[in-house]
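Let's do one together. I've listed all components of the complex below, 814 residues spread over two lines.
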Amino acid sequence: MIFLRKPKVVVLGAGYGGLITTTRLQKLVSLDEAEITLVNKNDYHYETTWLHEASAGTLHHDRARYLIKDVINTNRVNFVQDTVVAINKEEKKVQLENGELEYDYLVISLGSNPETFGIQGLKEYAFGITNINSARLLREHIESEFAMYNNEEEKRDERLTIVVGGAGFTGIEFLGELGNRVPELCKEYDVDFKKVRIICVEAAPTALPGFDPALVEYAVNHLQAKGVEFMIGTAIKECTKTGIIVAKGEETEEIKANTVVWAAGVRGNSIVEEAGFENMRGRVKVDEFLRAPGHDDVFIIGDCSLVINPEIDRPYPPTAQIAMQQGETCAKNVAVAIRKQGQQAPFTADIKGSVASLGEDNAVGVVFGKKVVGKQASFMKKMIDNRALFMVGGPSLVMKKGKFKLI
Amino acid sequence: MIFLRKPKVVVLGAGYGGLITTTRLQKLVSLDEAEITLVNKNDYHYETTWLHEASAGTLHHDRARYLIKDVINTNRVNFVQDTVVAINKEEKKVQLENGELEYDYLVISLGSNPETFGIQGLKEYAFGITNINSARLLREHIESEFAMYNNEEEKRDERLTIVVGGAGFTGIEFLGELGNRVPELCKEYDVDFKKVRIICVEAAPTALPGFDPALVEYAVNHLQAKGVEFMIGTAIKECTKTGIIVAKGEETEEIKANTVVWAAGVRGNSIVEEAGFENMRGRVKVDEFLRAPGHDDVFIIGDCSLVINPEIDRPYPPTAQIAMQQGETCAKNVAVAIRKQGQQAPFTADIKGSVASLGEDNAVGVVFGKKVVGKQASFMKKMIDNRALFMVGGPSLVMKKGKFKLI
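Okay, and this is what the predicted structure of the assembly comes out as:
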């Protein structure tokens, strides 16, 4: 059977979800069946879950990214390097910065935007752990502050104060890397370690909310031993050019700091909101087949989507694990839709666990329902990281970019 | 013969001159004969002539410094880590930031200060290639500008513009390193090399004044091929927060640049001026035995001293070569002075040559009266650098810090 006009499948975003969808689709669907286009801002994919390392400077950012053309079949998939500006779901068009694409089936996997909860000054003055650009900038910024310190007659200790907003997953993992990186910086720039302050401010009543309290305690103890100060149950009221203002109950305090990192949360994508899909903070509650309600031709996966965990009747947090699993289901369902035969497959999450790194040699988490800490957890974390590479690019990508401890 | 009170010799500064003086003195003079004290701001010596590499980021700054205690005999020499504030030549005292020292014989080898010729804004806004602190700051600053470039919606090309003020020895050597470093930075931060500008502004009518015109042409051609733009016969009128204003004849032009490096000259030391020695821009025209006129107990060497080259009846430029040769003579003369027997030895410079590096693999210069360029000159430059290490610390220091091309 030959189509006069092949259906057009457009995948927006080459993050975990989009890249799994594309690499699966290029195998599932033949050249005759559909025209597949992948759109991404950069010509590379980056490991969002490794950015805390690139941001601290403990892993080179090039280790955390790879070229998209190295993992897709360019004979099967058109790759368009461009930025998505808007989605017109009525006309079935995607507006790009430098062009326009028509689609019959759309996969939206555009990832998240940072969520600043309206806290004044965060957008202007705080650094983020968001992408390759922001990661290498943050690494560089911290290093320049150390470099500048001994170049001024009057030493300004705020150059050596780093505030991390948020003790969630990203915040804790970033602190773990800082704990290893800061002593190196002190040596590099002849700075007394005692002058450095690393402060973590968390509004919630605990670090790593959702983690087992014993694991939280383990993580906090480890980081405190590395010199991290925790201000738990403390909210950032404002971020200024010279630091932050925090509040605990009625009391407010100013902390002078030249580096403020906002690691306290993400929301969905503004493109999704502007396109008019029903959403909650940029996340669309998709149907069981991962489709936008009322739009059977639009699949939404990853951080832009919202899926309820039936066990606790709350949304799954946006993770790489979920995004990749959604990508597998999404590819199958797009193929079914193109062929107009077969059954759409429902998505079910299969949470294998969650491990938060505490630096090179330590981690805490739960894997297959079992609590792990220390070197064992750290090893598992590396295996989880390597698995993400394996799923997209097979063993050769693991060899190229994988994490193996050098002995 | 036993002194009731041993004469006190104080050496100020552990640069090329001071360190050669000290290492020679500790062998020449016995424990009974004198008490030797070396004062230096840092606990390390750095290779001033290698700072252009550390500043560009082509050589780690730790490769360009070593601990003073590793090259002096601490049984023979008291090392005081402190900053010289003032010299009181009448009371024969040196005031330090954290104390005071008395001397019977003083060696002033405090090096140079940058000379900005009263150009407005240079002190505030320009970077220098002056010491370890300024070198690692400059390296870091350039890198942060590249890191920032892709983090702004509106790209600001002035982040990628580097102005080097001065096409003298230091300016040219720094440009040579930048020529190699900038392509690396472009790759590191995904920056288009065509967006980068490296501009050298020189007020004199030629680059490398004093060098043979054929060598100057070779150097300029090499650097232009690496992307350096030269503005010769052009003066910097002002340095501002956003760049520089240059003038060529009547015309003025503003060049927007986030990095301005002032590499156009040094003067002697303000401490020497403030102490009331007769001086020309901080340099004291010493007698043939390297003593301050009218002060037989004060030796002045290195960049604080001024020695006339009889062949051209003009002062020798302040170089490491001269400073080290002065150190040898100075040590002998201090020993004579302590013993109050023997003859003061006159200083004669023995200029072996001068080679300006143009990066890892290229250089231009004159060695033993013979012009050299290219790989041969580059090899000689490395040998010159290694010789400075050898003279202070012998073969072990050369093995530790020497420059050998890795094949």
